[in-house]
Amino acid sequence: MAKKILCIDDSSTIRMLVKKTLAGLDYVVLEADNGQAGVEIAAREPIDLFLIDVNMPVMNGFECVAALKATPKYGKVPMVFLTTESSQEKKDKGRQLGVAGWIVKPFEPEALVKILRMLAP
Amino acid sequence: MLQRLFLPILVVLFTLQVVGIALAVFLLPPLATAVVCLLSAVLLVALFFFKPATSVQPTPTAPLEPPILSPPTESVVAAPVAVLDTDPLQEQQVSLDLAGRLSNLVAKDTEEAVVALTESLFSLLESSRQVSLHIEESLDSLTKGEAGLGNTAKNLESHWLSFRNLGENFAALQQALSADIQVLTQTVSAIDEFSDNISDLADQTNVLAINASIEAARVGLHGKGFAVIANQVQSLAKSSKQIAEKMATTVSDVVRTVEASFDRQTQRIQGSQALIRRSETDLRTWSSLVEPQVLKVGQMIEQSRSVASLVTQELNRVTVSLQFQDRIRQILEHLRILTETAGKQIESFTEVSLSEVPGPLQERARREAQALFTVDQEWALLGSGSAKKDGPKMVELF
After folding, report:
1. Mean pLDDT for the stretch of residues B214-219
2. Could you tell me if B119 and B319 are in contact, meaning their C-beta atoms sit under 8 angstroms apart?
3. Average pLDDT score over residue span B269-284
4. Nearest to B323 among A12, A107, A110 (CB)
5. Which residues of B touch A (CB under 8 A)?
């Protein structure tokens, strides 16, 4: 059965690139343009892995991860930050929140697929 | 003077920045475009904090407050030029609002262009990959399977070997036939010899019988019985000779028939051998023709696979490159936020919101912007009711 990936990013280009990269593989990609919208979609649909941007309007990536991790449904579901941010401080913050990985944009399609295969096989 | 020129310089520089960024997005490599955007942002911020009105005044004590706080409504109506001299910050406020909206327009257009470009590129590369895969599958089916070229080549090789074995068998058969003919010839010769011997014996017996008849006649009446026996022996000798001659004739007939049959068989075998040799040569030729084709098709499959792999690599590079373009859009977005912040700061200085900025000032900013703007979307930012509102004509004949 195809795994559901929720891509939360305010950039429609990035969402489209993620979708195109995973097209033809055994993944279904859902989209949200900010953290709040992502949390709402995750409440409706069961998600197998989250790809989350850090800087977004309405609700940023850290707040979004904290909100999702607080729910019993997504406490152990893998979440990966996909962001232009690369500072150690931010990465540490992500690690403390319990995210499974950190991908700095621009991402290499092969690297993204490899990580997804590891976290949501 | 510097104060008068500051606004037009600001507007011109900002417009140049926006045009430069837009050109850089599509013409320069991503890194160079990012540098252009960053320099533009820095220049804009520097321009904003550069205040010619305050720099020319010798005393820095609250230099901006008097003109800002004094509402210039009457003088604006009566003499707009005088008002413009006293409210440079309000003028900046209008220009920055316009600059912010321009920046927003560029960011939006850039994103739309990148999304459209992404769609087109992926669609193009996907089609290319599909074609490549289709070629690979077609070539693969041509060489593999029961009716494939590879199998045909193997079959031809196998048939060629069978024909060669058949040819060898026929050669052995012909040799055996020749040996049989030789044995038959020898046997017939022996029979002929026997027949001749019998014939000789019959002749000698006949002579003896004649002599016995003569001797029987010489003794007269006493030899009469012996003469009858001699006649009987002579008669038997003649019969023996006739049998011997008949046997020789029959054997000779049989030999002729058998030899004729052997000759026909030999001719048939030789004909078959020639046919086999020709078929063997043909099969060998076809096999030698098919083998390089199989090799060539194999190479084409490899090439097709290599093209598919190159397309995938190219797709990966495009994906990375497009993300750089998106990063530029983000930088433009930051530029817009900076402009907005600058506008708000002016608003806090002047305590006059954008909508309260005197009409003549706004009108002047509009006129200056109209003189600069060339693109329909820029005109739309001014809320201009110009003829351009209907959309641009792509081709126009005069």
Report:
1. 87
2. no
3. 86
4. A107
5. 111, 114-115, 118-119, 122, 315-316, 319-327, 329-330
